[in-house]
Design a protein that fits this description.
The protein has one domain. The chain is built from three helices and three strands. A three-stranded mixed beta sheet has the order 2-1-3. The N terminus is likely disordered.
């Protein structure tokens, strides 16, 4: 997502090339795959879900990705919460 992956391992030229730095929180979005095509939700109804899809989310991930897609050289600075989630975020 970012042109700069690790601040300590970047060159001076790479650090100077960054146009925007996005700071905030990083979280893990979890999206269930709904089984059976179109699902109509009703109060009290149980809906069968298939495998889940993980994706990074939060201000840093969402804004940083949007800026990157717009061609802006972007650096990311974020805080990742629970250890179990921090293991998943780099893989999402």
């Amino acid at each position: 997502m970012s042109d700069i992956q690790h601040g300590e391992s970047t060159t001076q030229a790479e650090r100077e090339a960054v146009v925007a730095i996005v700071a905030g929180h990083i979280c893990l979005d979890v999206f269930p795959t709904l089984v059976g095509g179109s699902v109509q939700f009703k109060p009290g109804q149980t809906v069968e879900a298939g495998p889940v899809v993980f994706s990074t989310g939060g201000a840093v991930s969402n804004t940083g990705l949007a800026l990157h897609k717009l061609g802006v050289s972007t650096g990311l600075m974020g805080k990742v919460g629970l250890p179990s989630i921090s293991w998943e975020c780099p893989q999402a």
